[in-house]
Amino acid sequence: MTGIPRETRVLDAVVSLVDSLLDDYDVVDLLTELTEQCTQLLDVAAAGLLLGTPRRPLQLMAATSEKLHNLELFQLQSDQGPCLDCYTTGQPISVADVHTQAVRWPQFVAAATEAGFPSVHAVPMRAANTVLGALGLFGNEVGELNDADLLVAQTLAHIASVAILDRPPTPASVPPNLHAALTSRIVVDQAKGFVSQRLDVSVDNAFALLRLYARTHGHHLTELSRRLIAEPEGGQTILAAMMQMVGPPPS
């Protein structure tokens, strides 16, 4: 893909995501794909998506790896970091060197440094004059996002907002749609842990298996996850098929 101009790759990604919006999509799967596109199109190593409602604090909706998943959760638990500030102010944040924010975010800076992310950025997700959440972007090298990258990131954040709301939003429609999206994420996380434990694979690999099985068999990721949690015994066939995807253990 290195020979393809960046502008072409951005347009291809946007068209692919919009095509998904016009089809029968699963919100968790689509938002996970969107964060993965961030790492392909922008000068960042990882991306995560946080959502909140007026009655509930920010919660993690998607992340490109378990390492980032844990850092985003730490950000929420410590109540400090770029995504929280972006969500509160509704303004994009770009920090070229996270160490410059040691006074502002002391605990987060230490955690981000340990995780290998010296640069951090965030853009807001908005709809119907409401900030829905933030798209967090994390670099493994010191450096700011340029204006072109920020524009691409904001475009992807807009697509994420449309995916969550599923229709032209109104102030009354925003909270229930956010609640439904967050509930879907919780169900998928439970299934991810279940598959990880039953198949003895990493959480990242368990999530990849869930997505692969759902796409291969034409299922929604959330519905597949709900079935595994609600009917663990009945899900033995699914687990057996996933085991085949993993392959035999090394001798």
Fold and architecture overview:
This protein is an alpha+beta fold and 251 residues long. It starts with 5 loop residues before the first helix and ends in a 5-residue tail after the last helix. The chain has ten helices and five strands, in the order ααββααβαββααααα. The chain is globular and about 50 Å long. α1 runs antiparallel to α2. The protein has a five-stranded antiparallel sheet, with helices on both faces. It folds into two domains: 6-169, 2-Layer Sandwich (Beta-Lactamase); 184-246.
Give the number of domains.
Answer: 2
CATH topology of the largest domain: Beta-Lactamase
Radius of gyration: 18 Å
CATH class of the largest domain: Alpha Beta
The CATH superfamily of the largest domain bears the name: GAF domain
Helix content: 55-70%
Number of helices: 10
Going across the biggest sheet, name each strand in turn: 2-1-5-4-3
| CATH-scheme architecture of the largest domain | 2-Layer Sandwich
Which structural category do the helix and sheet elements fall into? Answer: alpha+beta
Distance between the termini: 36 Å
Strand content: 15-25%
Principal-axis shape equals globular
| Strand segment tally | 5
What sequence of helices (H) and strands (E) makes up the elements?
HHEEHHEHEEHHHHH
User: Unreliable segments (pLDDT under 50, ≥5 consecutive)?
Assistant: none
- The average pLDDT is 87
Largest sheet: 5 strands, antiparallel
